[in-house]
Amino acid sequence: MPHMHDAPIQDLARMPKVELHRHLGGSLRISSLLELVDGGEVVLEGGGEGLLERIQVCADDPKTPETFLKKFVVLRAFMHSPELIRRLTREVVEDAAAENVRYLELHFTPFSFAQPYGFRLRDVFEWVTESVAETAMANDIRVSLIASINRRESVEDAEAVVQLACDHLEKGIVGLGLSGDERAYPADSFLPLFKIARQAGLGITVHAGEWMDSQSVRYALEAIEADRIGHGIHVLDDPDLVAMARERRVVFEVCPTSNIHTGVVASMHEHPLAQMIASGLLVTINSDDPSVLDIRLTDEYLRVVRDLDISMETIKGTILTAIQAAFLPAREKEALETDFIHRLFQRNSRG
User: Which of 48, 197, 229, 341 sits CB 3.0–4.6 Å from 37 for a disulfide?
Assistant: First the structure.
């Protein structure tokens, strides 16, 4: 890495961070996965040869959503016991704390953990929420959970997830998400479930405008009434939609490196993040799936500073935006914001 970027990466590494869009299943500690396969605790179809290439995007991989999603098929094989779900969840939280993430909203898809091995959904919720709570307390990090529905799930399965998410409001669940392939699976059948979740007090975030055009974002805002949009970069295709998003103060959870590896954007230099900011949209910067993408949130910050000429002050502004958009009670957000303002700008305040 060029010497001119040494100072920024040091500053970015030390910077307290907030992340609203990180998936549990895409953040598993790589060293642990290799250890589990080498030790025979996890046996993969086809064996363990070439494991790294099967769970991480590689330079010569086709940059398509399909290639990206295949990595998760392999990763799900590591969640075959309650002990592994607890352990790997613990490590995800530890790794976030290690890079100075102070507040994290971690997305997880309960059905994808439960269905392959016949676990009860309620048990999956308990294993994940308990592991997160214990690890967060031990590592000085605040972690909230977003229970996610995959678009390919049945309405009945999604309804069970929503009910359990509502039941776990006091155990760290703060939101309901919708993920999966927006091109292949429309969300119409899930609309009543989002209404139930909203009435229960859960925030709503929807993956949209990532692999489809701006109409996907419009649907998420008008039909689902999402509070936040995951990715959402195609919002820029529709000036009227940009104006609506500005007026409603919709927050976009932007994941630049992920967008490149799924072929949505050709290169970091061409990523529309800077244009979204210039358009007055509220954006946050996120890692999406750190282990699959072989990045950290710090790396994501560095790339947008280096390749998009986004200033350190703007990065700090996106962190404060993330706090304001967090699915937390107003009083807790105010306390978090006060703490971050002190931490982010204390050097300036000392002159």
Answer: 48
